[in-house]
Amino acid sequence: MPDQTTTSASRAEKTERVVFGQGFLKDCWWFAALSGDLKPGKLQRFVFLGEPVLLGRDLDGKVYGIRDICPHRAAPLSAGQMVRDGSACVVQCPYHGWTFNTEGTCTSVPSLTPDQEMDVNRIKVRNYTVREQQGIVWIYITADARRPTEPDHEPPVLPGVVGGNPIIVETMDFDSHIDHAVVGLMDPAHGPYVHQQWWWRSAKSQLSKIKQFEPREHGFAMVRHAPSKNSRAYKILGGAPATEITFRLPGVRYEHIEVGPKQVLGLTCLTPIDDKTTRITQIFWSDHGLFRFISPLFRLGAKAFLKQDGDMVNLQNEGLKYDPSLLWIDDADTQAKWYQQLKKGMDVRTQ
C-alpha cells in the first residue's frame, strides 16, 4: 500500500496511472519485432505506447532503438538513411543531414561553418534499451524519458523450440486499450459464444472445468494439463498432448505443448500502439513434423480467432464509449482480476 504521507497530488497521479483501461506500464519489456523483421541498414518506424521509435539494425547487424523525431525540425529520422562515419554507423536526417549514432547522440551538423563553435554531442534523441534473444526483439520503455534507467529485469526466456524462423506469424491491430485486449484474450468464458468453428468447438461444459494455477515471475501459469477435448487440431498431433499456459506482464501469453518428445510453442504478444490501439502478434514454433504439415489449419485458426476477437472488441466499444462501471465477478473473471492486481503491483514498483 502507498505511504499515508503521500501527497494528494501524487495519490491522484498514481490512481490515474493504474486505473483499468488507462495508462501503460513502464520500466518493463514490450514485444517489438521478430528478428527477421529487421534488416541491416534499413530504417523502420514503429509506434510503441504512443511514442515513435526508429527500430533497426546498423550496417553491422546490431539492433538499436532511438526516438524517431529529429530534435532540429522534427522530421522522422526513419525517413533518412544509415551511413558509415569512419567505423561508426550513423543515421542521417533527411531534412538537413544531421547525423546521430545508435545511442541517440548527434555526431554532426553539416550546416555549421568552421568559425561556429558548437558541441553537437550535447544534442541527443531518446535511446531505448533493446534485447534480441530467441529470434525476438524486446524494447524496454522507461517511465522517465529524461532519466533512462537500466532494466532491473530481463525479457522472458520462452520454453521449448523457440528461435529461428517461426512456422506461423499472424498480426492484427485491435481498436482497444491494451487492458481490454489482454483480459479479452485470456477470458475463458467467451469461447462458447465467440469462437465456433468446425475444427474447434468451444463447449459450454468446458467452463466448469477446474484448472490449476500457480504464480510465476511477473505473472501466473495454468500448470501443465491435457488440452481441452474440443480441439481437433491438437488430436491430429497424436500422442497424449500436455499443455502449460503462462501469462506475463505487461502483455505476453505463451502456450507450451508437449507431445511426447516433440513440442509446439504458441506465443501471443500484445503491444500498445497508443491508448486506443493494441497490436496482437501470434507466433508458432514447433519441431513436430505434423505441425508444419497442418500449419495452414493453425494459420486459418489464428486468423479466425483474432478476427472474431477483434469484432467483439469493436462491439464492446459501443458500450465502453459511455464509460460504464464494469462488474467483475469471481470464477471466469479471476484471471482478469489477477492481471489488474499484477499491473498495480508493477506500477507501484516503478514509482
TrEMBL record:
<dbReference type="GO" id="GO:0005737">
    <property type="term" value="C:cytoplasm"/>
</dbReference>
<dbReference type="GO" id="GO:0046872">
    <property type="term" value="F:metal ion binding"/>
</dbReference>
<keyword id="KW-0411">Iron-sulfur</keyword>
<dbReference type="InterPro" id="IPR017941">
    <property type="entry name" value="Rieske_2Fe-2S"/>
</dbReference>
<dbReference type="GO" id="GO:0016491">
    <property type="term" value="F:oxidoreductase activity"/>
</dbReference>
<dbReference type="InterPro" id="IPR044043">
    <property type="entry name" value="VanA_C_cat"/>
</dbReference>
<keyword id="KW-0408">Iron</keyword>
<feature type="domain" description="Rieske">
    <location>
        <begin position="30"/>
        <end position="139"/>
    </location>
</feature>
<keyword id="KW-0479">Metal-binding</keyword>
<keyword id="KW-0001">2Fe-2S</keyword>
<dbReference type="Pfam" id="PF00355">
    <property type="entry name" value="Rieske"/>
</dbReference>
<dbReference type="InterPro" id="IPR050584">
    <property type="entry name" value="Cholesterol_7-desaturase"/>
</dbReference>
<dbReference type="Pfam" id="PF19112">
    <property type="entry name" value="VanA_C"/>
</dbReference>
<protein>
    <submittedName>
        <fullName>Rieske 2Fe-2S domain protein</fullName>
    </submittedName>
</protein>
<keyword id="KW-0560">Oxidoreductase</keyword>
<dbReference type="InterPro" id="IPR036922">
    <property type="entry name" value="Rieske_2Fe-2S_sf"/>
</dbReference>
<dbReference type="GO" id="GO:0051537">
    <property type="term" value="F:2 iron, 2 sulfur cluster binding"/>
</dbReference>
